[in-house]
Amino acid sequence: MKNKHYDVFVIGSGIAGQTAAKICRENNLSVAISDNREFGGTCANRGCDSKKILLQFSELLYQSKRLEGLGIKKLPKLNWKKVQKFRRSFSNPIPPNTEQNLKDLGISLYHQSPKFISKNEVEVEGKVVSADHFIIATGNIPRELDIEGKEFLKVSEDVLDLKKIPKSITFIGSGYIAMEFACMLATLGCQVTIIERDKTSLANFDQFLVNKLMTKMERLGVKFIFNADVTAVKELKKNLKVSYAVNGNTETHKSRLVINTAGRVAAVKALQLENAGVEVDKDGVVVNDYLQSKSHPKVYACGDVSNKSLALTPLSGLQGYIAGNNVVKEKTKTFDVPCVPSTVFTTPNLSSVGYGEEEAKARYKNIKVYQGDASDWFNAKKENEDTYAYTILVNERTDEIVGAHILSSEANESINVFATAIYNKMTVKEFKNMIFTYPSYVIDFKSMMEN
Ligand SMILES: Cc1cc2nc3c(=O)[nH]c(=O)nc-3n(C[C@H](O)[C@H](O)[C@H](O)COP(=O)(O)OP(=O)(O)OC[C@H]3O[C@@H](n4cnc5c(N)ncnc54)[C@H](O)[C@@H]3O)c2cc1C
Ligand SMILES: NC(=O)c1ccc[n+]([C@@H]2O[C@H](COP(=O)([O-])OP(=O)(O)OC[C@H]3O[C@@H](n4cnc5c(N)ncnc54)[C@H](O)[C@@H]3O)[C@@H](O)[C@H]2O)c1
């Protein structure tokens, strides 16, 4: 077996791995990167970007439906084949372009999963490769459900790649992925059912808003089944039959497709990390604030696969930046969870930044909660949209805004204004002193913070 040595060996070519690899290379370290799938990672190949491209078509149809009879005479018709062709025009070039870009920087590429064979060596493509540092950036993969018939389950990337809109679909779990796809497919005429083990959807989000979102989704035709444990999937002639336990009874539901959206776990199995003594817990590779493996400091982990991540693209990029810099110069940067806005791209969007109500109440003595339904405000009415609501949290002692949660058709953009405000510790008074464009959703934020 041939031997090779690099200063740094990066595993995974998503945003985290690429960012770290480039920083190391820019600092003249010899760098290799491996991926056992197409280069470029989840977000660009089979996640955020593909999803947003598809969603804009269902959103356009939804907007047209809202305005049907108010000026829209005929609803647009979708050519799904063309929609998919358009989506692929973004995702197909990602792997070759990513590879070329990395090669141009002088980074060596491997197209296989490495296996650790000692603390500083992996076996990959028939070679034993040693490195001074390893950076694990292998991301997350769907959590396998250990149920009868699990081989019939599809996952999120199959939904992104649908050749046609199915007549019916069932999602197991109602987190980000299921809720986003459910809105898209229901709008496109698919019968959507969500089977969730918990008593609610999106348990980490503001439940006042989640309840309004679920009511809206029910109006779109989505059926929710809560407190249900899926036990089996069976193949019928045309459909799949899902069996689930609810209130001590076994019930069944039939649909054309069943999607496992019951969460994602760190992709570490193939790496044989036990041979390097790298500790892993239920959230991923156990790292310290420098993103160094706690049990093996020459190994770093960044992005979704680290146990300090929130599986979001901007955070994975940030962690890649921190890990790369710490490899170049030890202990130069630490990861403190920053103020992270996130959006569930549902209909309407559910966006959130800062503390939730419970967290804020636990952290501060007195919290002012501005909460309400804004569906009769101008912005919603002009779109004939029936769902628009908010929860904004303010530390009463300092008047600082500490959390904002918005359910609106464009919250994915406007939440960034609250992200800026919270990051800069703005008070309500300071926020209200700002001039915003009119008419806009952002200017409504001032009115939301009235008594
Ligand atoms: C459907 C979907 C929609 C999403 N939408 C959003 C969104 O709208 N906004 C947002 O912020 N986040 C979104 N996310 C999450 C976001 O995609 C991830 O947080 C982000 O891509 C993680 O980046 P990463 O570099 O850590 O990992 P990844 O991008 O997953 O990269 C890991 C890479 O490692 C490779 N790999 C895995 N195992 C091995 C191995 N053994 N050997 C070699 N290589 C390996 C993989 O093939 C992959 O290329 C979405 C995720 C999904 C699934
Ligand atoms: N817009 C975005 O930013 C975006 C979009 C998609 C994904 N992501 C990231 O990817 C991560 C993974 O998303 P996800 O939707 O797969 O997971 P998730 O963790 O958000 O949701 C999983 C859901 O499945 C439920 N569940 C778990 N086991 C179950 C079972 N056996 N039966 C029924 N329900 C079960 C959970 O209670 C939970 O509600 C997210 O946490 C997020 O960080 C982000």
UniProtKB/TrEMBL annotation:
SUPFAM superfamilies: FAD/NAD(P)-binding domain, FAD/NAD-linked reductases, dimerisation (C-terminal) domain. Residues 6-315 form the FAD/NAD(P)-binding domain. The keyword Glycoprotein does not apply. One of its GO terms (molecular function) is oxidoreductase activity. Disulfide bonds join 43-48. FAD binds at residues 52, 304. Keywords: FAD, Flavoprotein, NAD, Nucleotide-binding. Its cofactor is FAD. NAD(+) binds at residues 173-180, 196, 263. Belongs to the class-I pyridine nucleotide-disulfide oxidoreductase family. PANTHER family: GLUTATHIONE REDUCTASE (NADPH) (PTHR43014:SF5), MERCURIC REDUCTASE (PTHR43014). This is NAD(P)/FAD-dependent oxidoreductase. It comes from Bizionia argentinensis JUB59. The lineage of its organism: Bacteria, Pseudomonadati, Bacteroidota, Flavobacteriia, Flavobacteriales.
